[in-house]
Amino acid sequence: MLPDSYSTLEQPAEIEIKVQRSRFIALASPAEDEESAKQFIAQVRKRFHDSRHVCHGWRLGLQSETVENRNDDGEPSGTAGEPILVAIRRSGLTNVVVTVVRYFGGIKLGTGGLGRAYGGAADLVLDKAPQTEVLLGREFDLHFPYPRRKTVQHLLDQHRGRIISEEYGAEIDWQLWLPHSTWQGFLEALTEATAGELKAEPVEKA
Hints:
- By secondary structure, the chain is an alpha+beta fold.
- The chain folds into 2 domains: 5-133, 2-Layer Sandwich (Ribosomal Protein S5, domain 2), CATH 3.30.230; 137-202, Alpha-Beta Plaits.
- It contains 5 helices and 11 strands.
- The protein has helices at residues 34-47, 81-91, 110-128, 149-158, 183-193; strands at 5-9, 13-19, 22-30, 53-60, 67-71, 96-103, 131-135, 137-144, 162-168, 172-179, 201-202.
- It has a 5-stranded antiparallel beta sheet with strand order 2-3-6-4-5, sandwiched between helices. Strands 9-10-8-11 form a 4-stranded antiparallel beta sheet, with helices on one face.
- A hairpin with a 2-residue loop joins strand 2 and strand 3 (22-30).
- Helix 2 (81-91) packs parallel to helix 3 and helix 4 (149-158) packs antiparallel against helix 5.
- It is elongated.
């Protein structure tokens, strides 16, 4: 079963650090899919076209459907893409792409130094970037008389649901959101508590 939410970036971020005269410019962005991740990397490559190394890592999807990718872009194997990806994993975020651009400063860092620099830059940009929680679940329309409001509200709270929109006329119209893990239980409890009088209708997404 899918989780009830996941954390990702709300908007892109950028930082720069210097390690032994080398410049490391890290850029992070939310990415819904591989195509958007690739587009972001292409934009970074175009912007920093004079850099020899534009390394990246991305993490997309949830649980068993998670897809990861990394690229050292000419750096020694495992010294750039993997540390960037490890930083993303450590952050707990998904649907995220991070690129780190390097401008060589004349002093060789060694494989250990490179790994620490790339991973450290990725950590810093992910710490700086605003994060957001994306809710996963289902939405329902529910129409009910005023005397049923207390019952509906209690069941909604019990199942960790939220009211998305509400209208009050002769009766009450609520659009509800419920997590993946509880919406079925909410529907069953609603039927039982109202003897089948109330029925929440799923909102079909266009």
